[in-house]
Amino acid sequence: MGEPRVLTVDMGERSYPIYIGEGLIDQAGKRFAEHGISLKSPILIVTDENIAAGNHLAHLESSLKQAGFTVSTAIVPAGESSKSLTVFQELVTHALQAGLDRKSTIVALGGGVVGDLAGFVAASYMRGIKFVQVPTTILAHDSSVGGKVAVNHPLAKNIIGAFHQPEMVLYDLNTLQTLPKREVSAGLSEVVKHGLIWDADFVAWCDENAERLLALDPEALGYALYKGCSVKAAVVSKDERENDLRAILNLGHTIGHALEAVAGYKQLLHGEAISIGMVGAARLAVKLGASEQVYTVTKHVLSRVGLPVRLPVDLDTDLIMDAMKHDKKFQEGSMTFIVPVAIGRVEINHSVSASLVREIVEQMKQEA
Ligand SMILES: NC(=O)c1ccc[n+]([C@@H]2O[C@H](COP(=O)([O-])OP(=O)(O)OC[C@H]3O[C@@H](n4cnc5c(N)ncnc54)[C@H](O)[C@@H]3O)[C@@H](O)[C@H]2O)c1
Ligand SMILES: O=C(O)C(=O)C[C@@H](O)[C@H](O)[C@H](O)COP(=O)(O)O
Ligand SMILES: [Zn+2]
User: Fold this and answer.
1) How far is the CA of 207 from the centre of ligand 2 (A)?
2) Which residues are involved in binding Zn(2+) (predicted)?
3) Distance 80 CA to ligand 2 centre (A)
């Protein structure tokens, strides 16, 4: 176990570190104490049933208790359906019963679902308490950084939420070894996204190292997650609240979020929907004048890491178009798209016509 890689999310008084390395859960107690987490107020760990079935939860509890923290744990059902107001309220009940006060900390041990949900509880409980992200999926290199926390509404993803930055991110790479194959690919979707928006060399690296990533090679994973987190940290440091630049992190999400909602948050994992959405955005880019290579490279690299690149035919086009109107980038009656104008470079286009998007959705269905 070497020294972890450390990045800083630079946000003035809300700045925080991201530690990426092996065995970090066993050091949690020490790190929490170093970062001023209160020993006097109870801590609540939120995790899901799959993670609780392994040994990461036990290790985290034990490390925190040994350091003198009072710990209680809430276990939610695994999967996107836990990002709901119902589960949110159950967690608030748990927090009250466990005696959490305004100096308490909520710890999210899990993937993006646990992180978004627990983070939203932390943002709202007593009008906001501290939280720490302990990501356990590849996808969560994205969700644990940047402070977007939310639950879903049946009509729209992440529509009830807040910006609430964690105190730190403790990314223990050992946890990733137990991820199911499908979740590995889904997580790599946002890794590739960070390359597509920011770093063409990293896209080429993902292509060359796809087999190593899929085999969970620790060195390749550590590098990929460090690169992904670096891009995310750089972007959110410049524009915490998505006034402008941060929107680029939404590449593939205009179509992707709509697909997730229309599929009832069940058929497609977030990373899978975003993969299809990024292929759609690349198609759009070509229609708007980008080189055909943007589309072929995007599709190729996403396929290489085991992701779907075709739009499921059973999802109704009208419903997809309607769902897109609930996107947070749909403002003042117009649709904003993140357009990959070259590999590694995107533009924010505020005037994409709904008819062009419909044409692309239809074309993608015909290819399926
Ligand atoms: N806030 C953000 O900036 C942001 C960014 C990207 C995605 N998201 C959100 O993240 C969510 C998706 O996150 P996700 O893909 O991590 O999904 P997830 O949290 O549902 O985790 C995926 C699955 O893997 C299981 N799992 C987690 N860690 C495991 C481990 N170490 N070993 C074995 N199984 C494990 C979980 O129980 C679950 O079944 C979506 O809701 C998405 O909207 C948020
Ligand atoms: O952090 C961001 O900003 C992102 O857009 C990252 C996305 O990968 C993530 O899925 C995010 O939750 C989407 O945000 P939303 O505001 O479109 O709900
Ligand atoms: Zn996403």
Assistant:
1) 24
2) 190, 253, 270
3) 15
